[in-house]
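[job 0412] stage=fold_complex status=start
inputs:
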Amino acid sequence: MEPKQLDQISGQVRRDIVRMVHSSQSGHPGGSLGCADLIVALYFHVMRINETKNAEGFLEFSRPGQNEDLFFLSNGHISPVFYSVLSRRGYFPTAEMSTFRKINSRLQGHPATHEHLPGVRIASGSLGQGLSVAAGAAFAKRLRKEDRLVYVLMGDGEQQEGQIWEGVQFAAHHQLDNLIAIIDWNGQQIDGPTDKVMHNRDLRLKYEAFGWDTVELKNGNDMLQVLEALEAAKQKTGNKKPVLILMKAEMGFGVDYMMYTHKWHGAAPNDEQLDIALKQLPVTLGDY
Amino acid sequence: MKKYTFTEKKDTRSGFGAGIAELGRTNPNVVALCADLVASLKLDTFIKENPERFIQCGIAEANMIGVSAGLALSGFIPYPTTFANFGSSRVYDQIRQSVAYSGTNVKICVSHAGLTLGEDGATHQILEDIAMMRAMPEMTVINPCDFNQTKAATIAIADYQGPVYLRFGRPVVPIFTDPDQKFEIGKAWTVNEGKDVSIFATGHLVWEAILAGEQLEKEGIDAEIINIHTIKPLDTEAILRSAEKTRCVVTAEEHQLNGGLGDAVCQLLARNTPLPVEMIGVDNSFGESGTPAQLMEKYGLNAKSIVESVKKAIARKQG
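[job 0412] stage=fold_complex status=done
writing structure:
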């Protein structure tokens, strides 16, 4: 798919995000907006997924995902972007996005498998666990001699969890070179700038010291750069090391008043703010 | 009293080792993981025969649970192993989110549960794990009583779809169950039929209950002894049937009184057939260093305590 088309999709995904969060008056728009370009690029261009459709016209989803590339969302609070991309990709009806965070929904506040939402393979939200799960899935692919990749997205605040570093050492020790981890390096977390809350120091050096290959993505909100970084990371796979993409992205990207602040990490826009946001995000694929 | 004898003593963890070794030969989807305790968990045979299906995780239990979840959702049957303390309380949130809530088919197999871990002391003597795992939705909790039953349980859980917490121990104890038994999850085993009292025992306390039953017989008390190897799901039918017959109950476990088998039985009886219950277990305290036998004596987890509790329970019977 052309970068221009991918940009159109991520524009619609951003509308979906703010509309979902507004509708339920809860959720996490900031990180969702910042990661929209990456997740759109993965699902619409980079990952090899099963394109078979079921009788209702939706993508067949199998949890093991054999012979597919897999994506895990470790920072589960950015569920709006995950749900929008899964739905827009064809895993479930876009209309279901209106049920986000509401009673009896498959679109739980944080991603869950319990309600069997197609596209979700593991629950996430309690931070620090996704890298370990992705490492397990990557190990499984190696045991099956599958030539497929496992992607996992984490937050930069999430790097403060101890389990992350257990996972980092495990993936390197077992030479999981079919694993590509991405850090959403937006420098913000709930209590403020990451440097003030708990300094991550040099994440690139830390991962390299643990035995990983790294790729820097200077602007995770520029589709061309996103595609280049994903390609560069793929080129580094199969080389006895897991690969990290350190993605500089802007929390709240696409909605001016949500950018350059941690305040929209987990806050919902009111009616007026929604209108302002939607004026900045033109309809491309049609609203749900 | 039905006669139980034994010719050999072995640790229940060796039952696990034998079980997973057999699974290694029969089930290509079984993967074993360990957090730097391979010898303690008796994994040597499995590793020797299936080196590619063993994953050393180092001293990093939280990651081990997550890796297990990733393997399970990919279609493998992971058996993460460590000491019971590090496979429960240390990783509760990982089990909760990545295993139980996510419905991943992970078999958490843990050794050195309870006081009988012995000399290492209270830091390692988990006595709350049954309570924690019982409280977790969709978790199955199993605590077998001897080598043969542990081996059978280890093999049986591979055929069950869903998360399991299988707990066993360190010391050698008599082998008194059938080597060819079929282990049914959630199906209690009636060790001895009796009419005066129901003793519901789990793990290492089942053999103690048998010794207690022999003593009670000499004193003219006919005890029914039931092995509750599966604490969740509880065999409510077997427990209610027995309690309604004998009209008084003693529970026995190597675990805290709070939240364990005794609590589960009390909850069941209170809701159905309120009857006097005496409970054997550790009463709101940590353990300490000592030999297993010394500790079981000091904390009242043996045949002598069961005999005393039976007499108290019978004395509390109505009419």
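[job 0412] summary: Chain A has a mean pLDDT of 97.
[job 0412] exit 0
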